């Protein structure tokens, strides 16, 4: 059995900054990873747009375990990621894979390789 890996993505008005097409590519690149025990954690730094609504729509097909946490205020880069790490540990993740919201994973075996 492989260890559980938590992919932590910090968002902040990502829909406005990068658009639907980019978010779709970013999420798809995570879903296409060739690793059986992934959990996706979206930590939102108090976005004022529809970022979370759009991401939830993309993930509701049940293809991956995911959790969305909307923070009450913007805690900055470190503060948001730290909250994602703590949440992941409570969800029994053994490894953490941090991603910015402007990243697309180009290979399907990146997490498995790491």
Describe the structure.
The protein is of the alpha/beta class. About 40% of the residues lie in helices and about 25% in strands. The two termini are about 15 Å apart.
What are the SSEs and their pairings?
Layout: E1 5-11, H1 14-31, E2 38-44, H2 51-59, E3 65-70, H3 76-90, E4 95-100, H4 110-113
Parallel strand pairs: 1-2, 1-4, 2-3
Distance between the termini: 16 Å
Number of strands: 4
**Percentage of residues in helical conformation:** 40-55%
Describe the strand arrangement of the main beta sheet, using strand numbers: 3-2-1-4
Could you name the ranges where pLDDT drops below 50 across 5 or more consecutive residues? Answer: none
SSE string? EHEHEHEH
What structural category arises from helix and sheet content? Answer: alpha/beta
What overall form do the CA principal axes indicate?
globular
Summed up, what is this model?
The chain is an alpha/beta fold and 114 residues long. The chain has four helices and four strands, in the order E-H-E-H-E-H-E-H. It starts with a strand and ends with a helix.
State the main characteristics:
alpha/beta, four-stranded parallel beta sheet, 4 strands, single chain
